[in-house]
Specification:
Radius of gyration: 22 Å
EC number: 1.13.11.5
Structural class: mainly beta
Order of helices and strands: EEEEEEEEEEEEEEEEEEEEEEEEEHEEEH
Keywords: Dioxygenase, Iron, Metal-binding, Oxidoreductase, Phenylalanine catabolism, Tyrosine catabolism
InterPro entries: HgmA_C (IPR046451), HgmA_N (IPR046452), Homogentis_dOase (IPR005708), RmlC-like_jellyroll (IPR014710), RmlC_Cupin_sf (IPR011051)
Helix content: under 10%
Cofactor: Fe cation
Organism: Advenella mimigardefordensis (strain DSM 17166 / LMG 22922 / DPN7)
Bound molecules: 2-(3,6-dihydroxyphenyl)acetic acid, fe (ii) ion
CATH architecture of one domain: Sandwich
Number of helices: 2
């Protein structure tokens, strides 16, 4: 099933890169998916028959505690050519730029921060080597908080696979199409789409075409509760990201021979182990723990059709709740193409100070609160209680505008919003991408009080 062909491009914005996706998927979010690459490989009526089907080994992957409530419980049964315990000894692997948890030695100024698109500092990097942590909070061992990384990669992972025991990974591609091979099968993901790789699932990321440009994007590594669809409350039973638009892979296994290198992130450290065959050897699987992708063009955006600018929580695609109701470990929020029709309203985001900490990125186009300075591939950070809002240009434009219905088009910004303060890494604070003059975009907002 190719869902791209179903997008109505008259009303929905096409992504800048449009490689066609010929892969097959199963639809739904957190379904009891079932798939087999070879007939007879998926047992019927039981999970672990005395003899695995077709000589396959049975292996269970639990993404939540066995006793997690039913609506949160995630696990998948895999039928594979070898169990994943077949491996040698692990040895340490170095990835010094991929950091875990807040770095308490970094002094974070309580002011708005912004970064230009990061430059490619290593043109020999795959997805793992090309990862750079830009901010983090919480702790992987405490199962709370997130890290935000950017990746810039020029080469395929090829015979290298990766397992993250510290959290799930929400990938937001910004440039170039990815082919993601996982234990559950393959997904193709391009800018405008997002993908979630659950904690513990082996995967690798390869560029789809050689465009001469590296693949680039943002990642939210989530140490906390798994991302899920938000409650809809009075919105009702439909809207925002609809579950049926999420796509899980179908079972597929690799026949490649030769050595694999498996890299495992475990408690903030990296380890490597040689494998004598591909870890992508699952012939059939069933369960509700699976990577899924989602095309944000399917997002049913809701906004004000009377007056005022609503809170951006109406744009929540996914939420990772914390123990405090309504106060997320992390929300993933998008600012997609949409109509603005509010009457007698300052339409861009208001000036504000927020309890929650806001990390923003831009996939393409312009963000209405910051028409200049905030570039695709760059980022901004407005931490807990840090004042921010529309820049001078946006303010001038919005207060002068004639309030006709207006389409914000050709744009996709997003926000990782967390209850925990984001601590930028040394890499982010000391690199040349940090915008030293960001605060100046507000300096012309003079006192114009008419007494
Ligand atoms: O600060 C930002 O640009 C993000 C944001 C957008 C919005 O529409 C309302 C509040 C908010 O924090
Ligand atoms: Fe904000």
């Amino acid at each position: 099933m190719n869902h791209h062909s179903q997008i109505d491009t008259r009303t929905r914005q096409a992504a800048p890169s449009t490689a066609t996706d010929e892969l097959e998927y199963q639809s739904g979010f957190g379904n009891e998916y079932a798939s087999q690459a070879v007939a007879g490989a998926l047992p019927q009526g039981r999970n672990s028959p005395q003899h695995g089907p077709r000589g396959l080994y049975t292996e269970l992957l639990s993404g939540t505690a066995f006793t997690a409530p039913r609506h949160e419980n995630r696990r998948t049964w895999m039928y594979r050519r070898q169990p994943s315990v077949v491996a040698g000894h692990y040895e340490p692997f170095e990835q010094p730029y991929w950091q875990t948890g807040a770095d308490s030695t970094v002094a974070v100024p309580p002011e708005p921060l912004r970064w230009a698109p990061w430059s490619n500092d290593n043109s020999q990097a795959d997805f793992i080597d090309g990862m750079r942590t830009v901010a983090a909070n919480g702790s992987a061992d405490a199962q709370s908080g997130v890290a935000i990384h950017i990746y810039i990669a020029d080469r395929p992972m090829s015979q290298r696979a990766f397992v993250n025991a510290d959290g799930e990974m929400l990938i937001v591609p910004q440039q170039g199409t990815l082919l993601i091979t996982t234990e559950m099968g393959r997904l193709q993901v391009q800018p405008r789409e997002i993908v979630i790789i659950p904690r513990g699932v082996a995967f690798k990321v390869d560029p789809v075409q050689d465009t001469g440009q590296p693949i680039r994007g943002y990642i939210c590594e989530n140490y906390g509760a798994q991302f899920r669809l938000p409650e809809l409350g009075p919105i009702g039973s439909n809207g925002l990201a609809n579950a049926r638009d999420f796509l899980a892979p179908v079972a597929a296994f690799e026949d490649t021979t030769g050595e694999y290198e498996l890299i495992r992130k475990f408690g903030g450290r990296f380890w490597r182990v040689p494998l004598h065959s591909s870890p992508f050897n699952v012939v059939a699987w069933h369960g509700n723990l699976s990577p899924v992708k989602y095309d944000t063009a399917h997002f049913m955006t809701i906004g004000s059709i009377s007056y005022d600018h609503p809170d951006p929580s109406i744009f929540t695609v996914l939420t990772s709740p914390s123990d405090t109701p309504g106060t997320a470990n992390c929300d993933f929020v998008i600012f997609p193409p949409r109509w603005l029709v509010m009457e007698d309203t300052f339409r861009p985001p208001w000036f504000h100070r927020n309890f929650m900490s806001e990390f923003m990125g831009l996939v393409y186009g312009q963000y209405d609160a910051k028409p200049g300075g905030f570039k695709p591939g760059g980022a901004s950070l407005h931490n807990c209680m840090v004042p921010h809002g529309p820049d001078e240009e946006s303010y001038a434009r919005a207060t002068a505008a004639e309030l006709r219905p207006q389409k914000l088009d050709n744009t996709l910004a997003f926000m990782f919003e967390s209850r925990f303060r984001f601590v930028p890494t040394r890499f982010a604070m000391q690199g040349p991408e940090l915008d030293k003059n960001y605060i100046d975009c507000w300096k012309g907002l003079k006192d114009q009080f008419e007494r």
